[in-house]
Amino acid sequence: MKKRTSILLHLLLAIIVIVELTGRFTDNINLEYPVKPLIMIWMALYFLIFNNKKEFTLPVLIAFFFSWVGDNFLMFSGKNELFFYAGVGGFFFAQLTYIYIFARYSEKGRKGYLQKNLIIGFLFIAYGAGILYLLYPGLEGIMKPIILIYALSLIGMSVMALNRHGRVNHLSFILVFIGSVLFVLSDSMLALNKFYAEFSLAGFWIMVSYIAAQYLIMRGLILEK
């Protein structure tokens, strides 16, 4: 029964993603309006059906909710800059919630990967610093602290995903960590395209990496026992 449900839900996701990416590829924002809000709703529904670790159901749904808020506000950022700020705010709280989930919940109760390999964390910090170095000349006023604070939360989320290594089963770790890296990549492209230099099909690649990121994080968390 669950296998059939999974197949049907993935067919629905495929339709949502195809319409969303077609809109991005053709630069037709009207295609995005009806389907983009469905992405995180789909993630939440799939997670509720297949998640077996009930103790972190609520925090995960909260992370999905803030991501959904971010999606909806960013969708209208071209109409008013305030929507962009609100979207960043939504994703900021999503990153904080993911950080809490990755740090708080464990299968094995062991020390995290970074407690044994602290130097790896500095590589993430160096990446974030490099992106900020490129962005800062194009930022004005309040955008500087906003982007700095969000960058710290985004990098922190991926760092804590890495820290799950050895604390959860390997497949759960791999999926969540790859998802976190894709999240960093997606938001890096978004920021670089907006504040540094526009590039071809930016919206398409941003959404490809973003949808993959949220999907992998969701599936990885389902596998945490």
Short description:
By secondary structure, the protein is mainly alpha-helical. It is built from 10 helices and no strands.
**Uncertain spans:** none
Number of helices: 10
Number of domains as seen in the coordinates? 1
The share of residues in helices is over 70%
The whole-angstrom Rg is 17 Å
Descriptive report:
It is a single chain. This protein is mostly helical and 225 residues long. The protein has one domain (2-223). It has helices at residues 2-25, 29-32, 36-50, 57-75, 81-104, 113-116, 118-135, 143-162, 170-195, 202-223. Helix 3 (36-50) packs antiparallel against helix 4 (57-75), helix 3 runs parallel beside helix 10 (202-223) and helix 9 (170-195) runs antiparallel to helix 10. The longest helix is centred in the last third of the chain and has 26 residues, at 170-195. The protein is globular. 34% of the residues are buried.
